[in-house]
Amino acid sequence: MQSWHRWPRHRLQRQLLTTAVASSMSKVDYCFSNDYMVLRPDRAGPFELLHLLFSPKVGRNRAVDCFTSTEIRSFLRRLAIFLNLLLQILLLVLAGPVAAIGAAVEFALNFIDNMLQGKMEYPNRSSATYRSLTGLIDGRVDLDTSIAPADSRYHAALCVMASKVAYENEAFIRNVVTRRWQMEFIKFFDCWNEFENAYTAQAFVFCDRAAADAELVVVAFRGTPAFDTARWRADLDPSSYKVPRLGRAHAAYTHALGAQRNLGWPKWVEHVKGKPRRVYAYYAIRDAVKGILEANGKARVLVTGHGSGGALAVLFATVLAYHREKTVLDRLAGVYTFGQPRVGDAMLGMFAERNLDRPKKRHFRFAYTGDPQPRLPVGESSPAHFLHFGLCLHFDVSYNLKVFMEIPGEPSATSSAAGFVASRVNAARELARGVHLGYSRSAYFREGWVLLLMRVLAVALPGLPFHRMHDYVNGVALAAQIPKDG
Length: 486
Description:
The protein is of the alpha/beta class. The protein has a domain at 133-413 and 463-478: Alpha/Beta hydrolase fold, catalytic domain (Rossmann fold, 3-Layer(aba) Sandwich), CATH 3.40.50. It is built from 15 helices and 12 strands. It has helices at residues 7-23, 46-54, 75-116, 133-137, 154-165, 170-180, 229-236, 251-257, 281-295, 308-322, 326-329, 346-356, 417-440, 449-458, 469-478, and strands at residues 35-39, 64-65, 184-193, 198-207, 216-221, 240-243, 247-250, 300-306, 332-338, 363-368, 392-395, 401-404. It has an 8-stranded mixed β-sheet, with helices on both faces. A 4-stranded antiparallel β-sheet has the order 2-1-6-7. β6 and β7 (247-250) form a beta hairpin. The longest helix has 42 residues, at 75-116.
C-alpha cells in the first residue's frame, strides 16, 4: 500500500530537480525558434528583477531567455514581466507546502466519503476508488443516458466526462471506462517534459467499443491538478516561441506536449545512444492513435481536455497538422476543450483554423461565465500575443449557451465595486441553482456535500469551487443542441 503522506515529499523532490535542471538550460535549447521569450524564475534574483524595472535591455537579463539584442522600451510591459516573475517565484516556493496540504485534504475527504458510504477503508492513492479533489467536488462518472450516440450533444458529453475523469489515477480511469462506460481502455500515458526533466503531462486513450470495431477513438488530456502550484505557474507563464510555418505557441504547453530541446517539433523523435527512452505526449499518443486507425478503417478521433488539458488537446491537433498527419487529421471528428486557456498568437490561430475548421468546423471551445482560466495567460491581447481562435461556446450562469468569437467581458471580482457585488450575486445564484437542479431535473444533477459546501464558501470567497468541471458537465447535458463536426 502506498503511503499517502509520502506523496508531497516526492512532489517537492521532483520540483527541486525540475528547478535544478531548468537552471542548466541554455539559449541553444530554443534554436528551433526564430523569435522566443522564456521567463526563468529559477534564475530571477534581486539584481535581475531590479534590472527589469530600470533597463530595457531584457536580452541581457538572466531571468529572461531571448535574443541578446532584445529590448523592451515600454515600462508597463517590463513591469508586467516583473510581476509575473514574482508570482512564479512565489508559486515555486509554495509547491511543497501546498502539495502536502493537498494530499492531506484529499486523504481526509476520501476517508470521510468512505465513512458516509459505510466503508471503513484506509484510502489508497493508487486504488480504483481514490478520487482527486475534482472527483470529490463532482462525484459523477457515468455518462448521461439521456444523450444517445445520434444526439448532437453526444461527442461533447463523452468528451466533457472524459476530461473530468482524466484528473483521476490510472486504476480509477480504467475502472470507469471498462465497467461504468462499457468501453475499451487502451492506455494511460504519463509523459516526460524534456525542458523540465519531469513528468508534466498525463492523458489516456479509449475506444467506444473493441478497437477493431470502434467508431470513436478518444484522447483525453489531464488539466492542472488543484494543488499543483508548479502547474499553476505554467498556466500563468506568458513565455512563448515563434515556430516557422506554425506561429507563436505557449512555451509551457509546448514543453509538456513533448517539444524537443534544440529541435522543437521534429516529425520523429530520434533516441540518441545512451539517452534514456522517454514517453513524450505528442509522439506516443499520435503513434497509438495511428495504430488503431490503421487497423480500423471506420473509426474517427475525438481529442479533449479541460483547462491546461484543453490547451494540450488543441496543440496536439495543431501539431498533427504541422506534421501533415493525414491518417489522423482526415478522421478527426472534433477537438472539444473546456475552460481552455490561450495557446498562441494570430498566426497559430489561422494555421489551426485552416487545418481544423475547414471545410467543416471541428474545434469546439467551451467557456463558463465564472471560469477564469480561459483568460490566461494574462497580458496583452493583440495579434502578436496570445489570442483565442475558433468559436467560443459560452455558458452563462443559467447554463444558456451562446456562440461568440471571444469570451464576453465580465466585471472583475476585485477591480470594482460592481465586480465585487456581481461575483457574490452569481455565487448565491449558483448555490440556489445547485440545490434546485437536483430536484427539478433529475438525480444526475444532484450535487454532493463537498460541492455544496464550496458553493456556500464561494459567496464569501469568489473563485470556488475549483476548476468548475461540474459546470461544463451540466452545461453540455442541459444544452438543447451543440454543434458537431460541421
